[in-house]
Amino acid sequence: MQIKKNILSGEEYPLILAPMAELSHRGIRELIHGWGGCSVFFTEMISASGLRANSPFERYYTDFGPTPSKTIAQITGSTTEDIIRAADILLEYDITGIDINMGCSAPEIRKKGGGSAWLTREKEVLYMLRIIKNTMPQNKTLSVKLRLPAEKEMSDFAMFLQKICNSGIDFISIHPKTSKEKHDRPARWQHLKELKRFINIPLIANGNITDCSTLLSRKEEYKPEGIMIGRKAIQSPWFFSLARKRMSGDKSPFTVDIEGEGIKAIELIKRYQPPEFWLSRIKRFFLYYTKNLFWGHNLFIKIKNSSTTEEIEKHFLEYFLKNPQEKIKEEK
Ligand SMILES: Cc1cc2nc3c(=O)[nH]c(=O)nc-3n(C[C@H](O)[C@H](O)[C@H](O)COP(=O)(O)O)c2cc1C
């Protein structure tokens, strides 16, 4: 099984796609896969209650291609019952594992007790993890992704973390920021050093990896068992491939067809997402992808204001008619 082998045997240093709502879906995973993929793909969070109700779009959330055996399905929910049942449903699929979202800071999720609000529900968390672990097939992983607590003292959190790690989960991913800190604030990696003392299972660290040199220095300094990458992997779907090269000391030129890759993203989103999702998912992708371009902010505003996918494509192609020198980018 991919992740256990990677994380526990250290065959390949794990570089992992973060779970991101409206982004870590099959279309984007295909785009990254086209560059050689990554060690493990997380899905976007899948609603436990939606899954149980078999709502109309569930088949898109449970499309685990292109590489189900390297894919971890992330569950979000606010009751132990919903999450335990959703885990049962997801474990029927040929995926590598399931992950419980205990980090999401979206107010609508926290209000119901889900996401990072789980950090205040210690007994229920430990009960839920034990129940799921007891019924899990041996060859699949159970993991938790969390943030730092906003409401708890760090020492209490460290004790809780220790209990979570002892509950039988296979690894833990930490985004070292509290639920009150927005995405534009830097992650506080220094906390991982202190917390590592309380973690006796593989730690996947996540937050603000913006280039290869940051990745390498974080790996060196904090020595997590793997690194999870979110927004940078959307801005640069080739980032995992580039990072592997640079990690192996290969400094050869790495060029990217920015125009071609953007068009491919639109095609893949349309191929693998339902029409109802096309506009939101394409716009969400370009929020990050346009950061590759000098006038990307202006282009994104046009994309954001577009009402059809054709209009988005037209603005994107027009950009390169005006700025042909930006079609091809040399990556460091
Ligand atoms: C648009 C967006 C959606 C996200 N959705 C999820 C999610 O579904 N589940 C989750 O655990 N974290 C989610 N996150 C948090 C990311 O997994 C990650 O922790 C965060 O982006 C920091 O990593 P980065 O700096 O590499 O982007 C989301 C982040 C973004 C930007």
TrEMBL record:
Keywords assigned by UniProt, alphabetized: Flavoprotein, FMN, Oxidoreductase, tRNA processing
Cleavable signal peptide: none
Protein name: tRNA-dihydrouridine synthase
Family: Belongs to the dus family.
Species of provenance: Rarispira pelagica
Any one GO MF annotation of this record: oxidoreductase activity
PROSITE patterns per record: UPF0034 (PS01136)
Protein role: Catalyzes the synthesis of 5,6-dihydrouridine (D), a modified base found in the D-loop of most tRNAs, via the reduction of the C5-C6 double bond in target uridines.
InterPro entries (UniProt xref): Aldolase_TIM, DUS-like_FMN-bd, DUS_fam, tRNA_hU_synthase_CS
Pfam families, alphabetized: Dus
Enzyme class, UniProt record, top EC level: oxidoreductase
DUS-like FMN-binding domain sequence ranges: 16-245
Keyword hit for Oxidoreductase: yes
Cofactor(s) required, per the database record: FMN
Classification via Gene3D superfamilies: Aldolase class I (3.20.20.70)
